[in-house]
Amino acid sequence: MKLGIIGLKNCGKTTLFHAMTQNRSRAVYKNLANMKPNIARVSIPDERLNALTEIFNPKKTTPAFIEFVDIAGLATGRSRNTDQGRFLVHIREVDALIHVVKCFDFTGNDFELNETNPLSDISSVNLELMIADLDIIEKRILAIEKKRKSFNVTEKNEYEILLKVKSGLEKEIPSRNIGLSENEIKTIRSFGLMTLKPVIYCMNISESALKINEEDTPFFKIINEYAKKENSSLISVCAKIEEEISALEKADRDFFIRDLNIVEPGLSKLIRASYDLLGYISFLTAGSDEVKAWTIKKGEKAPKAAGKIHSDIERGFIRAEVISFSSFIEAGGSLAKAREKGLLRLEGKDYVISDGDIIDFRFNV
Description:
By secondary structure, the chain is of the alpha/beta class. It has two domains: 2-278, P-loop containing nucleotide triphosphate hydrolases (Rossmann fold); 299-363, Beta-grasp domain (Ubiquitin-like (UB roll), Roll). It is 41% helix and 20% strand. It has helices at residues 13-21, 47-56, 82-92, 118-145, 153-170, 182-188, 220-229, 239-246, 250-259, 266-278, 302-309, 311-315, 325-330, 335-340, and strands at 2-6, 38-43, 60-62, 65-70, 96-103, 199-205, 233-237, 280-285, 290-297, 317-324, 345-347, 357-363. α7 links the parallel β6 and β7. The two termini are 30 Å apart.
């Protein structure tokens, strides 16, 4: 899973990137043509893995990973610039967008509404992405129209979808909100439309806002209403404080979190929101060699999940021996006791994987 962190300049997105990844390096953007984003791979915290590691004492433990891509701050009115066009390619390569929105005042006076306009900032970024997408759509439409007389069924279908997307973008409606069907999305997925990607709006709040309920923070209501209209997610973090916390030792970090009344660390918020938005879950494999978490789409069946481990396991799938994590702990962390209690099940090809399933795949190739 790859998440792109975007936003206007000085919104705090690079500070958030450092906090989430404990990456202190900073990309220097001398000119747009040479822009390369900061990228970091972060292991996903999972207490279930820790518990299984204690039980199995494996040679290694492998968590699921998430990749954060810190993309240079957007400047409005430049999406048609050749250099920024190259820069926008980095956004096209991610699975979802974390759109960081400034919800603090740089003068030091918290919550100055006249100094901070998050909806205007959001609209500015979204408009830049829509303009860039529209440019791609128009070029493809033109290419198809040049051979209109020799349209095949596939091209005709693509053409009609592109016109639908173009109409929406011209009305400043992101392509994710145009009402495309799954098949329509599949048809145009190769274009990497930025406005088709799911979005998590991340309010970057001040330290003062940590002392009150999230719903009561300035801007929450108006941004939440905006996010709901386009089926996006909304979280809030104080990037500055999160960065300070990430630099501390674990004991000091835990104390600092309690002292600031932070209910859930920013990384956990982002991961939870990302999994929910993209429809991901994790299943687990465990043994003396390795304990590992695997990320799959919600609703996937056992053979396809097996394919995450190896294509041979999917191809030769016979059945899956499954137990939920909670049931395994209920059995004292013993597979033998789990069998005695009937908690360990044999499932076939139609079994839909649940989050936290511990699975041993049986196969023959």
